């Protein structure tokens, strides 16, 4: 019986000689046997598994690109499996036969799984293919009966008895194959996206058409020279076609961009900037694509080319992010003048939007790059959540400033160009940033103040005035003045201010284009002051004072000064007409006469 089993094995060895799948399974069985060695260190196990992972990737890509090599219509295990099953049914199988049957059933499941998975690469959807991979693995390995190796237990693992030694060896082989099946399944799932892409590419009509070039007489002759540089005529044709296509695309894009820029009548320096800083980045991306194709065509579809493609993908992401970044900022720059005049969007909000968009572009690019390198983003974000608490504590001032900027913008406390005054600074707001706001003082110094401080301070916003910039003065006339003249002068000044074109009064109207539902005084909310007061105010030490309190129509400083100057000239005219003189600080000394002087008694 042993001779018959040996004969079957020899016959099978001839059947599967040169079989790619069986050779791979045998190689991986040896690897798993090595991993079962208890004397290996953790470093050695890690190194073997890393090499094993690369072997699986290369094997799957090889099968996906050349399916005929890995998928055979004849099953080389069918004959011996049937014979071993027949012996089992006839109850003539030995323990070694049972173990052999288990080994070939595992190999058959691996082969069957691979064959069915490769047939599913014809699927139109990658997601459908990946679902079929899970389904196929589950189906094939659920049909394979797992042998309980405990019933083949032999106490002396170093037994010199030939029959026992044979059982021990076959148990080890079965255990190794069982591990191969598990490792094969997990790696098949991990590599399913690459398998699908490679198979789809290898089946394309372009590839098959190019392969026909190599079959021509000219192709065979040219390939005899090109083979030394790992090229053939089909690869050279494909490469030249793609290079010509990319160069044409570059020319067309440059022409379209140039035509569009001139159509919108942009300035010459803007056109030059866009061509050098934006169009050139597109040219860099397409040129990089040429070098990428040279590497892929030269290396073929294998694990090395995939690793190189990842590096190229990182460069694509960086250049594309830079391209989007510059396009977004250029659009904002070109539209900035129109946006500045918008009554809906404020300049500081636009600046904040630009910064947020730029930050999002960088964050998305980093996430894509991490994803390309297989980083588990869920675990990374979880780790960042834990570290975030520590970072937040360390950067609490920066976070407070960010919320301060949000508070200023949402509360509409001030905006760019406003004249504000605090206890420490007085000037015009240049920019409201995420961390701090910059203010240009009236002595032309630039001051940066953290937003958290501004949000918690009392701020005078002198620019939030629609009508009315205050004019307040006290006019002093001499005590020698006639009170009827003073009364007439007060009435004349009051009339003059009521009729003055530059002074706001109760008849001054205002237009409010925005309709806001607020239960507040509109005049106080919008900054409208139309009070006019002219009264005899006080008897001072050196003068009789007339209070003048009014507001100019304009809040612009230069226009306010002009109105104030004109009012002062008119007041001077009114005083002169009413025979009144301006008083100035003076002391009047009255000296008593000799006749009225009393004699002071001597003591």
TrEMBL record:
Domain Mechanosensitive ion channel transmembrane helices 2/3: 355-396
One term under GO cellular component: plasma membrane
Keyword Transport in annotation: no
Topology of the protein relative to the lipid bilayer: Multi-pass membrane protein
Pfam families according to UniProt: MS_channel_1st (PF21088), MS_channel_2nd (PF00924), MS_channel_3rd (PF21082)
GO biological processes: transmembrane transport
Transmembrane intervals: 238-261, 281-301, 307-328, 349-373, 379-395
Domain Mechanosensitive ion channel MscS C-terminal, residue spans: 471-582
Compartments reported by the entry: Cell membrane
Residue span, Mechanosensitive ion channel MscS domain: 397-464
Keywords from the UniProt entry: Cell membrane, Membrane, Transmembrane, Transmembrane helix
Membership in a protein family: Belongs to the MscS (TC 1.A.23) family.
Protein known as: Mechanosensitive ion channel
Organism: hydrothermal vent metagenome
